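Exercise 7. Given the components listed, write out the predicted structure of the assembled complex. Treat all entries as one system.
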Amino acid sequence: MTRKRQIKLSAYLVGTGMHASSWRLAQASPGASIDIDYYRELAVTAERGCFDMVFLADSLAINERSHPNILNRFEPLTLIAALAGATSRIGLVATASTSYTEPFNLARQLLSVDRISRGRAGWNIVTTRDLSGSTARNFGAESHYELEHRYRRGEEFVDVVRGLWDSWEDDAFVFEKETGRFFDPGKLHRLQHRGDFFAVEGPLNIARSEQGYPLLVQAGNSDAGQQLSARVAEVVFAIKFNEEDAKAYYDEFKRKVASYGRNPDDVYILQGISPVIGATEEEAQAKKRQLEALLSDETILGFLADYFKEIDFSRFTPHTTASDAGLDTLQSANPDYKKHQPVIARENPTLREVYSLIIGSFSGDHLVGTPEKIADTLERWFHGGAADGFMLMAPALPEGLDDFVNLVVPLLQERGLFRQSYEGSTLREHFGLPVPLSRYTRIVN
Amino acid sequence: MTRKRQIKLSAYLVGTGMHASSWRLAQASPGASIDIDYYRELAVTAERGCFDMVFLADSLAINERSHPNILNRFEPLTLIAALAGATSRIGLVATASTSYTEPFNLARQLLSVDRISRGRAGWNIVTTRDLSGSTARNFGAESHYELEHRYRRGEEFVDVVRGLWDSWEDDAFVFEKETGRFFDPGKLHRLQHRGDFFAVEGPLNIARSEQGYPLLVQAGNSDAGQQLSARVAEVVFAIKFNEEDAKAYYDEFKRKVASYGRNPDDVYILQGISPVIGATEEEAQAKKRQLEALLSDETILGFLADYFKEIDFSRFTPHTTASDAGLDTLQSANPDYKKHQPVIARENPTLREVYSLIIGSFSGDHLVGTPEKIADTLERWFHGGAADGFMLMAPALPEGLDDFVNLVVPLLQERGLFRQSYEGSTLREHFGLPVPLSRYTRIVN
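Answer.
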């Protein structure tokens, strides 16, 4: 029997929401990003909506112009450990950097939250972008690693972590009370890794979980990032402006996965979406306008001045178009811009839209409207080969998640596009992925 | 009004208990060290007993001869984040090393669990002993740092962490929705630290908690360790063989605290105890004998051979005395032995007892018996100036904690020596300690 593939859903949890002015809404709790009860409620809501997972992004440096929701917030690994107790089914994915941690510590904390959640943890692998060098300066370095160095380190880091996760075979612990034999020493393995960046002996002092080890999630956009994703990631997170770009990315990425000898169906592509949901199209448009009206010109232009160091934005307003500001042809020093430039050159958005696009809170017309319209868009993208699922980056929380769970999820369920209830209890089970074999498993005929 | 000072109690949580054979008891769950529900229940029991805190020790390397309860266990910071949701009052103290982490990451995770628990976190500061170099080999180093280097790094590390914790003043967040002013930039501070070991700019991306920041706990025994404790620790954890040694340590340590210009009453000394509780003296003695009978000669002699590399233990049995094995006069290469040698030279215990003493599961006669006898011992030590409180290192869990909470705590309460219920809600409040002032607080007359 072949099972029909269904849409996968992840909720991106970030304080009052993705939109930089969401904290200013009348109903918003500006202290949300540091309120554990608030986060527990978000996770419970997402679980009520049968979401596959919640997702916690991260950054390792802030400054006076940072998004309000990241100035003062929980650290993701400790946060998902806390959310594990408030939920029982939903996956819990935390971002952690390969550039500023030790693989032994991170392998251990990740597997620890995987055990705490009984097989529901995921690791969003990042190498950490650091345009201004401010992250490096929090870790004793004068300047940030170059992208290529970062990804070489990241590749080796991931291999060390996966190696440490296999330290104990699944049947290593025999617990023979009569003889005093606690474990079988033949099933305890030392990694003995020696590479360009790390020397790690092992073994790790924690054994694999109900799902083997945490689900591997990645969102790399550079060539180096996509290579890492294609080689190791099980869930990939991207943000595309429209269906055409999403499809092109989807096709290209799945080909890359295949080029690593992996089955493209074993890697799920989640497209980031920031829907604005209203009872009517007009109500949704009004909600979007309200959020944008609360976004000050200063925030937009200050952010863009930080992002594009080569341009003097004091001459522009948020209504200036990308081409008038010279963004369409710009050779930016910012490597992040490479992924945005083609669409900006093609669509010629205003600077306000450029800002939303870059910070990931862009709500295109296909995502502003009634629950039916949103469901239609998701169905079209899913069936059209643009996405295996979606990362809900709600402009305003908690209502953006509440509305989606209460109004959009039932439509997807009615259409047979989304689960009615959880069938499995681990995160890998939600994605239909098997428990990864340990490298020490002996295949017996 | 002067409040009578009461006994402080901490529960040391470790799988099936401190005793290396505790997992072999008929009622033991050998997989306890990795069972989150089991840990939640331990924490709930300790909270029912009005304990000030639970305590999670740690290590960063294992080998085939490690204590069964540490081979496969949770990482402490993620574990206390999970325990925060199962409890509401008790303090949660995690061990983390200054030798193998980055101060920015650790400052952040500690403050994150402090916020998650609403002001109930503590940090047991360790520099990590590493006799065999196996920890260093998990972190890319060929050999471990020397003790003196470790403590110099540790001192600077703690100062950086405390500095980062003050990044945001308590009233920095103004949340003015009308004007769009989220915080007052004058109340955000960059540490700009440059020292011998670390260069850390800041600011930290999380603000102080309900109790300011995590309680600082330490258990250093070397001179360098005691200096760090005396300078910064708020709770100190020691293990002494008998009342006389405990008193001598207590007096000397409080003098050291005073030498740093601190009030000795602001630092609490918890003495580690491994009581064996029985309805009668005979029942308790039988319980102790049962545990010891399950401890194999091989475990004892194998551990000692690892610990004292200079001695060939194959010639001895666990009944050999310390003097017959030459331990009383040994110049050991193991720096840890310095703290045990005086008492071993004086008491001339058997090798079995030496083993228990070193791993911290020694139950002296004063701690084996009826609940009344245990309570009498604790009262005598407390009133005699040997302890401000106790770290319950139960030989067998969960019963060692259950029995203590059900049978010993009520006696201490009847005698007015221990609280009947929690008065505060933060860990610092349990210890009667004020919220630490931020270094940026302006004193206004």
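Discussion: The radius of gyration of chain B is 22 Å. Residues 281-362 of chain B form one domain.
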